[in-house]
Q: What sequence folds into this?
DNA sequence: TCCTTATTTCGCCAAATGACGAAATATACG
DNA sequence: CGTATATTTCGTCATTTGGCGAAATAAGGA
């Protein structure tokens, strides 16, 4: 029940939910999530911490940069079911579609701030437009 | 997104979650939920209101008594998915199993307080032990 | 009609939460 | 080593939330 409650609580905040959905496009750097959300860096850090503690996202550090991604298939069933629920619930949400477009723009400016690799960018944009296609 | 957030928020409180799970045994009267939860009647009422506004439960009034039950199959897909998630996540939770036993005790005292019908009682206990059986 | 009972609404309070800026920590570079 | 940068942690503040008791509302019975 503890796990469930922390997940549900984590999902109950709009900014956190939008960050989580933004990660569908693939791994994002904190600086990108910060730009996307428009919140203060400290606030973003705290939100990401909540998502991470709930098991919904994983982080990895590369130098000064921290990248976060959605929990993988090794996550608990409760987490995987939650992510599935989030995605299904927002399959046709115009706000989320709008957010998705904004992520594309932010990713175009990659390498201006964090050292994301070229192949990661190509992979992310490619995967993302596939998902986007399904939405439209 | 509004709908999703209200559901997730509703599910993020332990007392509300336990009330929701208690309704798996079938329709319950507010007086029974109040007894089960151990909270003040006004608090119970507020929690139930949140669950109802999120679409997770439906209520019906019969004289002085109000009965609540889990949302039915006419509920939105987001709600149905959420209820499925709740149930799957707690399939093997000892605390929830304990709660389930307590509900049985409370239902045995039915008719001491609210005018639930005999056939409803038989149906509820019967359904509930079936569910309980799957848990054990 | 008055009294009782069940539930909801309201008002208050303490705790929790989301937002921000400042400070701390970690990493990279000249 | 000093400076710059990215992120996290801490402290503060305003708002929200969960809990309670009192008041209000609705229904039933004598």
A:
């Amino acid at each position: 029940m503890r796990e469930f409650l922390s997940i549900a609580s984590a999902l109950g905040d709009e900014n956190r939910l939008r960050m989580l959905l933004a990660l569908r496009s693939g791994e994002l750097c904190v600086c990108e999530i910060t730009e996307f959300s428009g919140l203060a860096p400290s606030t973003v850090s705290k939100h990401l911490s909540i998502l991470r503690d709930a098991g919904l996202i994983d982080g990895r550090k590369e130098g000064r940069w921290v990248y976060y991604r959605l929990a993988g298939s090794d996550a608990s069933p409760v987490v995987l079911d939650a992510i599935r629920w989030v995605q299904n619930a927002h399959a046709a949400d115009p706000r989320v579609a709008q957010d998705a477009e904004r992520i594309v723009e932010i990713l175009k400016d990659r390498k201006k701030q964090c050292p994301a690799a070229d192949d990661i960018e190509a992979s992310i944009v490619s995967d993302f437009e596939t998902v986007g296609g399904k939405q439209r």
